[in-house]
Write a structure and sequence with these properties.
single chain, 7 strands, 250 residues
């Protein structure tokens, strides 16, 4: 089982190098996707140009986290990895929790159609109230769309099964893309396994976020509306047919 890490980043120059250096000891390879950063990110990444265990993908214009994530997953596939751990570059996730995610995956083998979903404590000190509301809102609609309950559907800390992912020509390219990937994975009967991870929220004055509450929440709401209709027309029938086919093979 070969796995790498994917770090999408946009204007997180203050924390990026620290995250990369903490990820490198616990994975075989790191793929960093610079999503058109306008700070010193590109200059910081030059130090990894000759490192065999780090691949840097860059493009000049900001395309959104979903686009960066898709780019990283496609790159991981071309590098012939089986799984990819995605972790944010803003310092909220603990790279030291990656072995815990992989141990959770190991308990599910030989079933390879498994995605491990990091689950944050939404009551942790410092968690912005708007984040808690948005996550609970997303969790509710995810259950409606898939029939599956997850404690944290908005986390970016996940282990993706690269050989079983849905089509990466996604409908969305920003924050809502992670929800889209989660729903379509569920419809493909990929088993979603939550596992607890730590989260760090710096003090208000030190916090760096590119989440735009009104615009991004509106995008998520529109996507949830479309996914509810799609669940009736495609999602639930697809899950049922796949389960029947799996029983026939067994």
């Amino acid at each position: 089982m070969r796995y790498c890490a994917i770090i999408p980043t946009y204007n997180n120059g203050k924390t990026l190098t620290d995250i990369i250096e903490r990820v490198r000891p616990v994975v075989e390879h790191v793929v960093v996707v610079n999503d058109g950063s306008t700070d010193d990110t590109a200059a910081l990444l030059q130090q990894y140009s000759n490192e065999e265990d780090v691949t840097v993908v860059q493009y000049p214009r900001n395309r959104g986290k979903g686009y960066a994530l898709r780019t990283g997953l496609e790159k991981a596939r071309t590098l012939e990895y089986d799984y990819a751990v995605t972790i944010d570059s803003d310092g909220q996730h603990y790279p030291e929790d990656i072995p815990q995610l992989m141990e959770t995956l190991q308990t599910q083998l030989p079933n390879t159609k498994v995605m491990v979903v990091g689950s944050r404590n939404l009551q942790v000190e410092g968690m912005p109230s708007k984040n808690t509301f948005a996550n609970r809102f997303s969790n509710f609609w995810f259950t409606i769309q898939t029939g599956i309950r997850l404690p944290d559907t908005q986390t970016g800390f996940r282990v993706y099964p690269l050989h079983h992912l849905p089509c990466l020509r996604m409908l969305t390219y920003r924050y809502e893309s992670e929800l889209e990937l989660l729903v379509f994975s569920a419809w493909r009967n990929i088993r979603l396994i939550p596992t607890s991870v730590r989260v760090y929220y710096p003090p208000e004055g030190e916090r760096v976020t590119h989440f735009r509450p009104f615009a991004d929440f509106t995008r998520i709401s529109i996507l949830n509306t479309l996914l509810c209709f799609a669940a009736i027309l495609y999602g639930y029938p697809s899950m049922g047919l796949r389960r029947i086919a799996a029983k026939c093979k067994s």
